[in-house]
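User
New here, help please:
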Amino acid sequence: MSKLIFENSRVGRKGYTLPKNDVEVKLENILPAKYRRKADAVLPEVSELDVMRHFLNLGHKNHSIEKGFYPLGSCTMKYNPKVNEVAVRNSGLGNLHPYQPESTVQGALEILYELQEDLAEISGMKEVTIQPVAGAQGEFTGLKVIAAYHIAKGNTHKKTIIMPDSAHGTNPASCTLAGFDVVELPSNEFGKVDIDQLKELVNENTAGFMLTNPNTLGLFESRIEEIAEIIHSVDGLVYMDGANLNALLGIVQPGKIGFDVLHINLHKTFSTPHGGGGPGSGPVGVVEKLVPYLPVPMVRKDANGVYSMDYSHADTSIGKVHTFFGNFAVNVRAYVYIKMQGAKGMRSISENAIINANYLQKKLAPYYNIEYKNTFCMHEFVADGTWQKDKNDIHTLDIAKRLLDKGIHAPTIYFPLIIKEAMMIEPTETESKETLDDFINIMIEVAHECDSDPELLHHAPISTPVKRVDDVLAARQLDVRYIPEN
């Protein structure tokens, strides 16, 4: 086990040289006493080499898409081209300030405007706001737009949103935050929306229907136009969670098949980094009748080719959902990716993701239970460990831990909740057939180990720097502090 950086600390050792301060500054004039420390901060005293080795070792312990296969279902952990990083670090973009006059940031506004337009074209929506800074915030924004639409029409009784039992966990949370009540719709025997039950649940109080398409089982909801007709018959709106848009690029435009609102996870589909709770981007697209309720400002282009921030619909807008205009650098990365791929490339992304997922599903079907293996999946599929559990008391968690020993990041496990012992696998389009074959062979090895040495699975991982932790103890007695001895 590596030492903490504090444990490498030695009094008087340092790895930095600060320039001599030639300006006399009185601290009390800069920071009031109540905000100042009473004693010096306890920091490690280490050399530059110690620091470099410490963080390099930490980096080696982390798993990343550059280090190995990362088949997290629904998360779409695709490779992020480094050209995105080169572009966004250009000083002409990185040194901009949001308070600069619009006349001095025309290039930046052009990027934002074209990104709005490109996402609208890809999604089939009339307008797109790129202000939300996460998928969950995009959900909240889209649902607030739905609420604003109904309030404007006097539909104050419309308080319920219907969603399938396979919905993403953020969906019901976002509905609650936006002031709606959630009505759960059980999936049918094919893992899709049960149309007959939907008809029974829809009434005059229905504000909308929230659906991921393809759904969280990796299956395409082919009856979406019929679903939309049912919801629209009571003046409800149809919301699409765009988490799985990586399966539809250049193939299906959600706005053209009945969806009224859509959020897009740029980190899942358009190669921007996963924020890990930090900087993300979740643009929201809407059909024409909902445009007046989008957040302000929108970027507009006049007849002379001049770009500006437009607040003209401020009276009807839900307002701002983030300071300034969202996460600019994240949006620039997506812009670069879209321009490099073009329309043909967009379709190729989805086609390859679908082919890869179906290849894995077919190859793994003899070794793991796949509830819906008799149908084609889209860009992901859900296998499960029920065979291993029933035969050898091996749980999906054990299988996931064993994969870590073999240099593979585990798939998403225990989601969706409607599949027991679920393993949600998404290869993405960026992985080669050789990588997929390696993963298949490892999964088969693990399946054999479940029979030949089940105790090994119960103790996995064996070779990782950190072994299996006590999840319950970690949750109830979490302690991430380090208290120096002196």
Summary: The chain has three domains: 5-52, 84-340, 345-474. The chain has a mean pLDDT of 94. The longest strand covers residues 206-212.
